[in-house]
Design goal:
With 261 residues, the chain is α/β, with parallel strands linked by helices.
C-alpha cells in the first residue's frame, strides 16, 4: 500500500431509526414541568385564599341595582307594584269595620261569591217552580183541553191506585208528575190509593200516521197507575188499548188525549 491509501479514512456509519421506533405522538409533559398547570394552580390557590369581604349584606344589595328596562329606568318587581297600589287604595294603617285590613281579605271573596251564586240559585229555583207548577200540568181541574204526547204500552198489574188490572183491560198510567201533583192538591200524598185521578177516564185519539189506514182511532181508558218514565203529556196504555190505536210493533206513537170527567 502507498501512503495515499493510508491517508484515506473510511466513511462514518449512518444509523437510521426503524419506523416502529419513531414516536407518533408528542411526548407527554410532566405535571411538575407544565407551566400552564402551575399557572392554573396558582390562580385556584389565589381564589381559594381570597379573604372574605367585610361589607354588610345591605351594602352589597345597594351596589347591585335592578336590571334596567329598555327605556333605561329601573322597574320594581310586580309584587311590589301591586302592593303599592293596594296600599294606595286601602291604606294598611286604617281600620275597616273596626278591624284591620286583613279582615277584608276574608270578607270580600265571600261577598263576591254570594253576589254571583245567590242570583243564580234564585233564578234556577224560580224557573223550576214555574216549569213544574201544577197550573202548567195537564190536570183535569186546570180547564181541561186536549194534550198531545207519546203513547206507549206496558204490562198492567197491581197499580199505584191499589187495583189489579190485566193486559186486556182498558187502563192507563199517567205521568208521575201529574199523579203526584193531584195527590198534593187533595192532601193525599201519603196514600196513593186515594189519589183523585184513580178511576178518572181519558179519551185517547191517534191519527192516521200512527194507525196506518182508516183515519183517526180513539179509545177510552181509566187511570190505574203512575208512569215514572213518562213526560207530563205522555200516557202508558195497556196492550189491548194500544192495539186499538196502532199496531203493537210500532212501540211508540204520538197521540192526543183529554179528560172525560
Amino acid at each position: 500500500m502507498t501512503d495515499t491509501d493510508n491517508n484515506i479514512q473510511a466513511p462514518e456509519p449512518v444509523y437510521q431509526t426503524p419506523d416502529w421506533e419513531i414516536p407518533t405522538h408528542p411526548p407527554k409533559r410532566g405535571l411538575r414541568n407544565s407551566k400552564s398547570l402551575r399557572n392554573s394552580l396558582s390562580l385556584l390557590n389565589g381564589a381559594a385564599f381570597t379573604p372574605p369581604s367585610h361589607e354588610p349584606e345591605g351594602a352589597a344589595a345597594e351596589k347591585t341595582p335592578p336590571p334596567p328596562t329598555p327605556s333605561g329606568a329601573s322597574k320594581p318587581p310586580l309584587a311590589a307594584a301591586l302592593r303599592s297600589r293596594l296600599d294606595a287604595v286601602l291604606p294598611p294603617q286604617k281600620t275597616y269595620l273596626g278591624r284591620r285590613r286583613r279582615f277584608l281579605y276574608v270578607i270580600l271573596p265571600l261577598v263576591l261569591l254570594l253576589l254571583v251564586v245567590l242570583p243564580l240559585a234564585v233564578g234556577l229555583g224560580v224557573g223550576l217552580s214555574r216549569r213544574r207548577s201544577p197550573a202548567n200540568l195537564p190536570l183535569p181541574d186546570n180547564g181541561g183541553g186536549v194534550f198531545t204526547g207519546d203513547l206507549t204500552y206496558y204490562d198492567p198489574g197491581l197499580g199505584a191506585c191499589g187495583v189489579v188490572s190485566g193486559g186486556g183491560d182498558a187502563v192507563c198510567a199517567v205521568s208521575h208528575e201529574v199523579f203526584d201533583a193531584a195527590a198534593k192538591e187533595e192532601g193525599m200524598a201519603a196514600n196513593p190509593n186515594a189519589n183523585p185521578l184513580c178511576g178518572r177516564r181519558i179519551r185517547v185519539t191517534c191519527g192516521a200516521a200512527g194507525a196506518g189506514t182508516g183515519g183517526n182511532r180513539s179509545v177510552d181508558v181509566e187511570v190505574m197507575d203512575r208512569c215514572v218514565g213518562c213526560a207530563p203529556t205522555d200516557l202508558d196504555l195497556s196492550p189491548s188499548a194500544f192495539e186499538q190505536l196502532a199496531p203493537r210493533d210500532s212501540g211508540r206513537v204520538v197521540g192526543s188525549w183529554a179528560w172525560l170527567d
